[in-house]
Design a protein that fits this description.
This protein is α/β, with parallel strands linked by helices and 625 residues long. It is built from 27 helices and eight strands. It has a six-stranded mixed β-sheet with strand order 2-3-4-5-1-6, sandwiched between helices. The chain has a two-stranded antiparallel sheet with strand order 7-8. Strand 2 and strand 3 form a beta hairpin. The longest helix has 30 residues. It is elongated and about 100 Å long.
């Protein structure tokens, strides 16, 4: 219950008791006020970032229903198309929504005890004739016959005019159209296309209401907000469509673009705060003292985990709270890396003694990356920053990463979803100039980081994601407006804090370069300090130092070394890796008098000292060139 993926999954009377208010909550509150201006609002965020929960907390709405509170009406539409509806989605969603609006109109009349237009159709027809004579002229006959003909001609326009009639007669001053859970429409084939269809419908509603004559607006006296909740990727798709679709509809949309607002969810609330709120609510539902005690122990372990790696979990989840809870579960009940003693029944052992657990950052990293396994693979949630899928032992991934790390300290560059940093203008020119013969490897490394979501696209970047477009790496000049995900700087720093990531990445490198039996792979272990794995890291680092030395020598020969340092950093990349190895070695062997360890410690220390001297000369070369 504590780490359930979403609030509705928690079996308590009111799951909103676990809600934590955010800055975006405060930004949405004014839309409940009827004194604002008409417009369209995007609420953007990654899947699982809490968009639906936020909307529920602010508007207290019901899916596919109308909720009336005072003089405010909230109409929420969630479309789950059938397979038949997917065959002609634009037509289907309009018909579906029009019928839904007409049902909402009936509820408005019922709520205010006002006779509906079915009881007096001529009043509605008089309203339509006054406000849209061209549309009125399309229906033949009189009374209900004319209404039926108007519905057959354009059901959606009829529904919106009927809604305007109801709002005017019932005194509603504020109407909010919510379009939420677009992923529900987008499930299955042509997913994003179906989400775009729903957004086009939302724009149609906005246009019908925005294009009212001034006299009609004055008489009707209600303001409206069309609020669309969608993923970043879908927002970029619609931005691209508005820019590149030269049809009449999108020309109208662009003409009204000044009334659009975007509210982004860049960061979820603190996980500690979220889980504390859950804990206080859930524990009240537990009946036995034993259950309450065990639940408190679980929460205590969770708090210990988050005190050391909350930022890591949030960064790896890229703002997806559901994924964050899943990653906490990887840690919380990990028998291989967190539990010191084995439970007789094989289940995770809940204990009040912290001595029963490995509550250290290295253990947490291994549990996150390996889960219950002993071998790291490229399928891990932690991407391999030493990736060598290009068949060459190089530093391409870390070189690309170092460029963005060095840029993130620039106060003029935004580093969020609204970033306007133009990759093609600066990075591409540097790569082509500095790396020339190796530029393909750099671009492939960049594509790798995009695929692994270490580098993300901003709202200004209209091209498809690397993961969604297999041909993306054919034209790197189109990769514009990107920003560095939080996991990038965190993983970069972790490489320098200890050897854990280096050791795990080496497993992936080794698997790709050598043929090993499954038995060999099973023997590889990271329990405490693995001498073999550590020696492999030292040997590979020696190779990488040679690679970096050759690269810097070439840059110096071409008089490009200063430009490289200014844009990629002054400290050699291998120094970063060396520091992590050295720190792990010092921590493990510090104050140890184990004879068995000594025979290895002298050999490893000698190798470390040798590499340190090489690193010193490399640093000196980098600074003096």
């Amino acid at each position: 219950m504590l780490t359930a993926p979403s609030l509705p999954d928690i079996p308590i009377p009111n799951y909103m008791d676990c809600y934590v208010e955010t800055d975006q909550h405060k930004q949405l509150i004014p839309y409940l006020d009827s004194n604002g201006t008409d417009g369209l609002v995007y609420l953007t965020g990654v899947t699982g970032s809490g968009k639906t929960t936020l909307l529920k907390a602010v508007f207290n709405h019901e899916n596919n229903n109308i909720v009336i509170s005072g003089k405010t009406a909230i109409i929420t539409f969630v479309w789950k198309p059938s397979e038949d509806e997917k065959l002609n989605p634009s037509y289907s969603v309009n018909v579906h929504y029009a019928n839904f609006l007409l049902a909402c109109v009936d509820k408005i009349f019922e709520s205010f005890s006002v006779p509906s237009y079915q009881q007096n159709p001529n009043e509605l027809l008089s309203f339509i004739k006054k406000n849209d004579f061209d549309f009125f002229s399309q229906g033949r006959g009189e009374g209900q016959t004319k209404i039926n003909n108007l519905q057959n001609f354009n059901l959606l326009k009829f529904a919106i005019l009927s809604l305007r009639y109801a709002l005017t007669n019932c005194g509603i001053e504020n109407i909010i159209f919510l379009f939420d859970e677009l992923e529900e429409a987008g499930k299955g084939q042509k997913g994003e296309e179906l989400e775009i269809v729903v957004i086009e419908l939302a724009y149609t509603i906005k246009h019908f209401l925005s294009s009212r004559p001034l006299k009609a607006r004055t008489e009707e006296k209600f303001r409206f907000t069309v609020l669309i909740s969608c993923r970043h990727y879908v927002y970029r798709m619609i931005t691209n469509k508005k820019k590149q679709s030269p049809n009449k509809f999108w020309n109208k949309v662009n003409a009204e673009a000044q009334s659009e607002t975007m509210i982004d969810i860049p960061n979820p609330p603190s996980l500690i705060l979220l889980l504390s709120k859950r804990k206080d609510v859930i524990i009240e539902t537990l009946k036995s003292d034993k259950d309450k005690k065990e639940f408190n122990e679980v929460f205590s372990i969770t708090s210990e985990i988050l005190s050391q790696c909350e930022k890591i979990i949030l960064a790896l989840s890229i703002g997806n709270i559901r994924d964050a809870y899943k990653y906490i579960q990887y840690l919380l009940f990990n028998k291989r890396w967190l539990q010191r003693k084995e439970n007789v029944n094989g289940a995770f052992f809940i204990s009040s003694s912290r001595k029963d657990y490995n509550l250290t950052l290295p253990s947490f990293l291994r549990a996150l990356a390996l889960r219950e396994n002993t071998v790291y693979t490229h399928e891990s949630i932690i991407p391999n920053l030493l990736d060598n899928t290009n068949g060459k032992k190089d530093l391409s991934v870390l070189i690309v990463l170092s460029f963005f790390i060095s840029k993130q300290n620039d106060p003029e560059l935004r580093r969020d979803f609204n970033s306007q940093f133009d990759f093609s203008e600066e990075f591409e020119s540097l790569v082509d100039k500095l790396f020339q013969n190796d530029s393909d490897h750099i671009y492939k490394a960049y594509a790798f980081l995009l695929n692994e979501r270490v580098i993300l696209r901003s709202s200004h970047c209209c091209q498809a994601d690397a993961a969604d477009d297999p041909k993306l790496d054919a034209d790197p000049s189109t990769w514009k407006y990107v920003y560095l995900a939080k996991q990038a700087s965190i993983l970069w720093d972790l490489l320098e804090q200890n050897s854990v990531l280096f050791e795990m990445f080496m497993d992936d490198v080794k698997i790709k370069k050598c043929v090993q039996s499954k038995d060999d792979l099973k023997k590889r272990s990271f329990l405490q300090f693995n001498v073999l794995a550590f020696k492999e890291c030292l040997c590979y680092l020696e190779t990488l130092i040679d690679v970096e030395n050759e690269m810097l020598t070439n840059l110096s020969a071409c008089s490009h070394i200063d430009e490289y340092r200014e844009n990629f950093g002054y400290t050699p990349i291998c120094r970063h890796l060396y520091n992590g190895l050295k720190k792990s070695f010092d921590v493990y062997y510090r104050d140890r008098n184990i004879e068995k360890s000594k025979e290895y410690s002298e050999e490893l220390e000698e190798k470390l000292n040798e590499l340190s001297k090489t690193m010193d000369s490399l640093e000196l070369f980098n600074l003096d060139s």
